[in-house]
């Protein structure tokens, strides 16, 4: 492999542009081609980021281009087929989250990576945020002691993305806000906690606003030709083998003050709170009489660039992937169990 990692972009939407901005900042990376079924959009993205070649079919791009890796920025239902095909052709893969529509697909993706001997990473970029890294450091240094409970969520007031788009169709997205934004905070909280083994899950979902086409402001237009058959709020309680618990909230729409992205950790020696919107991390300590809290206002770190850097280091054999596929499989098991619990009303044992 040359010093430059030659990357093919699969998908030309908004999320691909976030990855392309990171590629422009990384001297080792070069986007040499882009593929999207919407060719006009691909051409616009290619022009914006000086990508020399455009394809309508990602398989044709992989066959014709000398690529080292691909970045998959496609709707959820395409994550598994795009990834497994790319791996079968000897390409390293960085795939957008969620890993897949279900755990069976996720397992097949990892099997394909193992068989090909190639790197597979899921783009859990929020692991690379300054707040997450600081909280991870606190846990590893035993500032919190034993973490016995955590609370996390990504909740919006008005944020149904493109009503009628693939986001709101279960067969294409796999679900609503739980698998869209909840997957981010679930992963980062598990990452901070050291990925304890989940043993049971209880979940509940609601579709209060989506079916009425309410609360769609600011996140996309209404497509009357589409449908809405996913949740707009999901809640869950997850139990772990070590005795710890985690509560999760994920919503696109609710009557709340404002959008929040948060993580709170409760330990027997201290606590921590992350506000990813305000970019703050607070450590809570006391000696039984005096509070010894400290709040850190953190400079914005380019988490997409940090994600790409780790991916390139892994491709070049210089580091291990920070986002390991087996961890994303654990996330997928939990997501599947939440939806199954919501359908049956029962506690799901893993």
TrEMBL record:
Gfo/Idh/MocA-like oxidoreductase C-terminal domain ranges (all copies): 136-350
Gene3D superfamilies: Dihydrodipicolinate Reductase, domain 2, NAD(P)-binding Rossmann-like Domain
Annotated ranges, domain Gfo/Idh/MocA-like oxidoreductase N-terminal: 5-123
Pfam families named in the record: GFO_IDH_MocA, GFO_IDH_MocA_C
Coiled coil start-end: none
Family: Belongs to the Gfo/Idh/MocA family.
PANTHER family attached to this UniProt entry: D-GLUCOSIDE 3-DEHYDROGENASE, UDP-N-ACETYL-2-AMINO-2-DEOXY-D-GLUCURONATE OXIDASE
UniProt-recorded name of the protein: Gfo/Idh/MocA family protein
Organism whose genome encodes this protein: Laceyella putida
């Amino acid at each position: 492999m040359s010093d430059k990692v030659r990357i093919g972009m699969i998908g030309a939407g908004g999320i691909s542009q976030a990855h392309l901005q990171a590629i422009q900042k990384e001297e080792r990376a070069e986007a040499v081609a882009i593929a999207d079924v919407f060719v006009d959009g691909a051409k616009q993205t290619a022009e914006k980021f000086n990508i020399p070649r455009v394809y309508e079919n990602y398989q044709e791009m992989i066959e014709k281009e000398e690529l080292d890796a691909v970045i998959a920025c496609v709707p959820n239902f395409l994550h598994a087929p795009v990834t497994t095909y790319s791996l079968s052709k000897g390409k390293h893969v960085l795939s957008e989250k969620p890993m897949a529509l279900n755990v069976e697909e996720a397992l097949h993706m990892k099997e394909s990576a193992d068989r090909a001997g190639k790197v597979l990473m899921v783009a859990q970029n929020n692991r690379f945020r300054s707040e997450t890294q600081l909280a991870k450091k606190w846990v590893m240094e035993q500032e919190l002691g034993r973490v016995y409970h955590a609370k996390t969520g990504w909740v919006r007031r008005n944020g149904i993305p493109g009503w009628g788009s693939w986001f709101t169709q279960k067969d294409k997205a796999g679900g609503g806000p739980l698998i869209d934004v909840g997957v981010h905070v679930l992963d980062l909280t598990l990452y901070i906690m050291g990925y304890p083994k989940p043993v049971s899950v209880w979940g509940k979902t609601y579709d209060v606003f989506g079916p009425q086409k309410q609360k769609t402001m600011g996140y996309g237009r209404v497509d009357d030709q589409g449908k809405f058959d996913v949740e707009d709020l999901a809640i869950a309680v997850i139990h772990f083998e070590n005795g710890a618990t985690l509560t999760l909230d994920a919503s696109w729409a609710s009557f709340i003050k404002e959008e929040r992205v948060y993580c709170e950790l409760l330990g027997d020696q201290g606590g921590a709170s992350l506000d990813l919107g305000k970019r703050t991390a607070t450590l809570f300590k006391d000696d039984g009489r005096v509070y010894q809290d400290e709040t850190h206002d953190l400079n914005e770190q380019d988490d997409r660039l940090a994600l790409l850097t780790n991916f390139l280091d892994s491709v070049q054999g210089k580091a291990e992937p920070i986002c390991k596929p087996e961890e994303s499989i654990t996330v997928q098991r939990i997501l599947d169990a939440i939806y199954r619990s919501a359908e049956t009303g029962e506690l799901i044992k893993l």
